[in-house]
Specification:
Number of helices: 10
Largest sheet: none
Shape: globular
Number of strands: 0
Number of domains: 1
Order of helices and strands: HHHHHHHHHH
Radius of gyration: 18 Å
Distance between the termini: 38 Å
Strand content: under 5%
């Protein structure tokens, strides 16, 4: 499974999962919170696959990492689908119980997360050949470099603040840190080769 067919399949799976979780409790607050938690995790996995694709293909060349590199764009768009479902669930929570919503978040978090969503929207919009060509290679690279690291940072902050409260988040934090480590190691090796 490659290309846009991969994105289509993953999007259908994400929608089906969200609908199934939502109907567990007849779309009450608990089911909405289940969808929020589930899509946060699927978003993280899909983001890490897209974020590390080039680095993994460089550091550990093989059939799997070549597939990952070849499908980086499609994994990235699938991440955007997952995270916009996540946003829809968060907005549903705010509609269900506004007091609980503000207990779980604050204005600063909304601004930082909102900026991440702007990057996700811009990166998704420029994941098509025509829009990428319109933006130009230099601006495209800058947008996707800055945007991907900003999204990584938003995951690091969101998961990092939960690590002291729940051991379940330790492996997620390790995944986030490993993703950055892989990217930085690959970048260092590329820079050394360029200097040599």
């Amino acid at each position: 499974m490659n290309g846009w067919r991969l994105t289509g399949l993953l999007s259908l799976v994400l929608l089906a999962m969200s609908l199934a979780l939502g109907t567990l409790h007849a779309w009450d607050m608990e089911s909405v919170r289940l969808v929020i938690r589930a899509t946060a995790r699927t978003s993280l996995v899909l983001f890490v696959l897209a974020f590390t694709a080039g680095a993994m293909a460089q550091l550990a060349p093989g059939e799997v990492t070549r597939w990952q590199r070849r499908n980086r764009r499609y994994l990235g768009v699938s991440f955007a689908v997952s995270h916009f479902i996540h946003l829809a669930a968060i907005l549903s929570l705010a509609a269900f119980d506004n007091a609980l919503f503000w207990k779980l978040t604050n204005v600063m978090t909304i601004v930082l997360a909102g900026t991440a969503y702007l990057f996700i929207a811009a990166m998704t919009a420029t994941s098509f050949d025509r829009t990428a060509a319109w933006l130009g290679p230099r601006r495209w690279r800058l947008l996707h470099l800055v945007g991907s690291w900003y999204i990584w940072l938003s995951f690091a902050v969101a998961i990092g603040k939960r690590v002291p409260l729940d051991r379940f988040y330790w492996p997620l934090a390790a995944l986030v840190l490993a993703a950055a480590g892989v990217r930085l190691i690959a970048m260092t090796r590329r820079n050394r080769r360029a200097l040599a």
